[in-house]
């Protein structure tokens, strides 16, 4: 393990079925990153774009699993590097999602990210 982080992700959907995921990542070394995903319906999948995603992904699902594959531009040294992200998400309970991402460059695995995502209710009422 190289780094750990906590994140807040706020998800919303508009009347046309377009989703927004607003993500804020706080790393253990003090770095803060943000990413805003736009998920646009595309037949039986979603077209997924974000500011640092240089090759948009297609989000497909079956049963309790979602698969997304895209290219992300990440900081590396004094510059950036484009890394392929192979995302698998599994809904374990109605409020718990496990996300496993393999990162690769030129077909060689260079990293892995594992997330446990818990749904929190915000706002008024129940």
What does this structure look like?
- The chain is mainly beta and 126 residues long.
- The protein has one domain (5-118).
- It is 0% helix and 73% strand.
- It has a 9-stranded antiparallel beta sheet, with no helix packed on it.
Structure in a nutshell:
This protein is 0% helix and 73% strand. The chain is mainly beta and 126 residues long.
Which residues form runs of ≥5 with pLDDT under 50? none
Radius of gyration: 15 Å
How many structural domains does the protein architecture include?
A: 1
Overall geometry comes to globular
Structural class: mainly beta
Mean pLDDT over all positions:
90
Quaternary structure: single chain
Helix content: under 10%
Main sheet summary: 9 strands, antiparallel
Query: What distance lies between the first and last C-alpha atoms, to the nearest angstrom?
Result: 38 Å
Order of helices and strands: EEEEEEEEE
Physical arrangement of strands within the biggest beta sheet = 1-2-3-4-5-6-7-8-9
Strand tally: 9
Number of helical elements: 0
What amount of the residues lies in strands?
A: over 45%
SSE blueprint:
Layout: E1 5-13, E2 19-27, E3 32-42, E4 45-49, E5 53-62, E6 65-76, E7 79-93, E8 96-105, E9 108-118
Antiparallel strand pairs: 1-2, 2-3, 3-4, 4-5, 5-6, 6-7, 7-8, 8-9
